[in-house]
Amino acid sequence: MDWIDTHAHLDATEFDATRDAVQQRARAAGVRSIVIPAVAPSNFAAVRELAHAGGHAYALGVHPLYVAGLGDAALRQLHDALRDAIDDPRLVAIGEIGLDHFVDGVDVAHQLWWCERQLRLAREFELPVLLHVRRAHDVLAAALRRAGWGGGGRGGIAHAFNGSRQQADAFIALGLRLGFGGAMTFERARNIRRLAAALPDSAIVLETDSPDLAPAWLAGTPNEPAQLPRIGAELARLRACDTAAIAALTAANARAALPRLAALAALAAGA
Asked: pTM for the complete prediction?
């Protein structure tokens, strides 16, 4: 079985002493592709270098919790980084971008300013998006509609999705897939588990968000991509289907959401 981890921060400092071993364990577990999203201009180079060194994919963008104090100069830096990397087959999306209204005291207007401008960059460079969204699903859906998603937008993934079924349907209608990971493995996460069980086959992709969002059996310790097959097995159980079918389904959905992943797979096969 081949698995795709659509969201893992392999550049995180938690992996500084174990990064090679983490990647080896992922390969041994059958995780063939890992998408590494940037969170700020300060790690644009790191995620690109790590993707190339490890045979992974990456995304460039500014996370909503990292936009404080950043303005036009940082936006130009992102634009220039995308321009310079647009012919790099390992660049598969703009991300991690979006909105986070969960954290107290954030400047929601500034987050929206950044989100809207990064969506414009996604249209300009014809790339899908990796979206972060917490307690802002309706506001982000409205921003996506204004930016043309559902009518020519490039699609993408709403990672670690935790909205309602109505909000899930709205994001799906906008051409997005929804990311599920470790949170789905907790019995008390009833809403996430209901969504994971009931959403259309075409809507679901898998992720770890490593080193965050550890599954139930790793609670309190760093997550890593090697956990993806076991997370996928829990998704298979919730959907009453075969684990191999879930691996194939979610990998196909990941490649549909991030089309450059399919080209990378073809490139690897020909290597």
From this structure: 0.97
DSSP string covering 14-78: GGTTTHHHHHHHHHHTTEEEEEEE--SGGGHHHHHHHHHHHT-EEEE---GGG-TT--HHHHHHH
Residue 221 token pair? 């310790």
Answer CATH for 3-270 from 3.50.50.60, 3.30.1330.10, 1.20.120.450, 3.20.20.140:
3.20.20.140
Which strands sit side by side in the sheet containing 31-37, from one edge to the other?
3-5, 31-37, 57-60, 91-100, 129-134, 156-158, 176-180, 204-206
Cα distance between residue 30 and residue 244, in whole Å: 11
Instruction: Place 270 in a pLDDT band, splitting at 50, 70 and 90.
Output: low
pLDDT of residue 234: 98
